[in-house]
Write a structure and sequence with these properties.
Layout lengths: L1 E2 L5 E2 L5 H9 L7 H34 L4 H4 L2 H35 L8 H4 L8 H9 L1 H34 L7 H19 L1 H20 L3 H12 L2 H22 L5 E4 L4 E6 L9 E7 L1 H12 L4 E3 L1 H10 L11 H18 L24
Parallel strand pairs: 3-6
Antiparallel strand pairs: 1-2, 3-4, 4-5
Helix pairs in contact: 2-4, 2-8, 7-8, 7-9
């Protein structure tokens, strides 16, 4: 189990926030063995693919470099031009190989941990200049692991060399009696394959190093229980700040709600404790919905705004309580209350027609509106 500098057990896995911060600092799992093996295997592959072209261009370069007219020797400018023309054919295969190795070196380094650019990782760390810290690193667990990896690399490479030489020893001896230039080409081909096999032997080291680097990085990021608690507290914020935010959000929602009261079609009241503002759009596709609701002081404010803007106010305690407890603001009322609400809206419409002199006085709204048993609240 990992421990921090104070000896406290770090038993908790790293949180997403801890991982994010470590990436900002450039701390990700990396494998130098993976990058090295990628470059060496790519170099061997490039030599096998472009080797013939490279050898051909080298032979032409040597021929051109030592074949020139006598006048060129006494003219430095002509000498430089002659040398430049000798290297022209060699430039393209060399550039192709170097570009390939450059791309592979970047990809090989980013295969584990991804591509990451961090300015914090480039900042100098004065703690690394401490002799005590340096001695601790030299004698620490990481130093022993690197030593074991180095020994393993030597054993793997030496073992691969021994196996290759044992398998090709007879063939190598036969090269001494093979006529030129066939023996040269055959020897070069054999050397290319030997180099490829030696580079591929590093895959064994990579197979050991990559899981270890992932495990080591996860262990370094582990946290104590207290660190997890502190991070959670910081991410959630201080209680007084959260309370203030909730208060501001509540006040903003109340202001918006009170601003919608003048657009309501009717206010249904308890009449003392509850108030609910309803709106119904005749040409819309919504059922009657709640634009505002409140209890006690807020209920009183809703009625005051309604009187100010001449919004009809109806007293129906059972219906008011049923709507208040079952419907949120901007929510449509339940289907079970449609009949009772339809009576209320019809009465409001008839009352408006009466005030405009277009009809007689409507009958008073009945006190016993039909409210389903499941929607009856007595609080």
């Amino acid at each position: 189990m990992a421990e921090n500098e104070n000896g406290t057990d770090r038993s908790e896995d790293a949180t997403p926030e801890r991982i994010r911060k470590s990436k900002e600092k450039g701390q990700v799992a990396r494998s130098k063995e993976l990058a090295t093996a990628s470059v060496l295997i790519s170099a061997a592959l490039a030599m096998m693919v472009f080797g013939d072209r490279l050898a051909y261009e080298l032979s032409l370069m040597m021929t051109n470099a030592f074949t020139f007219e006598r006048a060129v020797i006494f003219d430095p400018e002509q000498m430089w031009l002659h040398l430049a023309s000798s290297f022209t054919g060699l430039a393209m295969p060399m550039f192709t190989i170097l570009l390939m190795l450059f791309i592979v070196s970047i990809l090989g380094s980013s295969l584990l941990g991804g591509v990451l650019f961090s300015t914090k990782a480039m900042m100098p760390k004065w703690s690394r200049m401490s002799p005590a810290a340096g001695l601790k690193r030299m004698l620490g667990m990481q130093a022993w692991v690197e030593l074991l990896k180095s020994i393993l690399k030597v054993l793997v490479v030496v073992g691969m060399v021994w196996w290759i030489l044992s398998a090709t020893f007879t063939h190598i001896l036969q090269l001494s009696v093979t006529p030129l230039p066939g023996s040269v080409f055959e020897a070069l081909d054999m050397i290319s394959w030997m180099f490829m096999l030696l580079c591929c032997s590093l895959i064994i080291i990579v197979a050991v190093d990559v899981p270890y680097q992932i495990y080591k990085h996860s262990e370094e990021l582990k946290m104590t229980k207290q660190e997890v608690k502190d991070e959670f507290r910081n991410s959630e914020g201080k209680p007084e700040v959260k309370q203030r935010i909730r208060q501001l959000q509540y006040e903003a929602s109340q202001r918006k709600m009170m601003g919608d009261v003048p657009d309501a079609d009717v206010i249904v009241t308890n009449p003392t404790h509850y108030s609910v503002a309803l709106k119904y759009e005749k040409d819309g596709d919504r059922a009657p919905y709640v634009v505002a609701k409140g209890v006690d002081f807020m209920a009183l404010k809703i009625r005051e705004v309604a009187r100010e803007y001449e919004v009809p106010i109806m007293q129906s305690p059972p219906l008011c309580r049923a709507i208040y407890h079952t419907t949120e603001i901007d929510g449509e009322v339940p289907e079970e209350l449609f009949a009772a609400i339809a009576q209320v809206l019809a009465y409001i419409y008839q009352l408006e027609q009466f005030r405009k002199g277009r009809s007689g006085r409507p009958k008073p709204l009945p006190d016993d509106l039909q409210i389903p048993t499941d929607f009856q609240y007595n609080d």
